[in-house]
Amino acid sequence: MNQKFEITTLILRVVLGITFFVHGLDKFQGGIENTAGWFASIGLPGFLAYGVAVIELVGGILLIIGLASRVVSGLLAVVMIGAILKVKIAAGFLGGYELDLALLAMAAVIAINGSKLLAVDQFLFKGNKNQNDIAA
Q1: What is the Cα–Cα distance from 88 to 9, expressed in whole angstroms?
Q2: How far apart are CA 14 and CA 109, in angstroms?
Q3: Both ends of the chain: CA-CA distance in Å?
Q4: Residues 136, 115: contact at Cβ < 8 Å?
Q5: Under a CB-based contact definition with an 8 Å cutoff, are residues 60 and 18 in contact?
Q6: Sign of CA dihedral 116, 121, 124, 129
Q7: What is the DSSP string of 44-59?
Q8: Label partner for 13 (CA 20 to 30 A): which of 62, 106, 127, 132?
Q9: What is the CA radius of gyration of the chain?
Q10: Can you tell me the distance from the alpha carbon of 15 to that of 21, in angstroms, rounded to the nearest whole number?
Q11: DSSP letters of 57-82?
Q12: How much is the pTM?
């Protein structure tokens, strides 16, 4: 891949990571039990709140450092699809799901293409080209 592509995917990966890290941290700081209760109030099992919060928090950190970026981005894309379909779509595009859709698109780009520049994966798996392609 060319250098410009790697720089742009690095930007997407880090911004996506920071965004999800902060959202996950907020769920825990605001009282994860409250988030679980809100999930239950919209018809989702409350325990899903814990999974979403962990995916956002830990996934955000993993994206920032570039570890398992494709897998993490895939999980975050699933979270965004769920958020759009279950919560945001009723509000419409503006003021509803526009941010979630942008985050979904960013996650999809990283899940499909990976992001190798300044990624921990590149240091851990540099001897195994096939592993780099999977983990990037």
Answers
A1: 27
A2: 13
A3: 12
A4: yes
A5: yes
A6: negative
A7: S-THHHHHHHHHHHHH
A8: 127
A9: 16
A10: 10
A11: HHHHHHHHHTSSHHHHHHHHHHHHHH
A12: 0.89
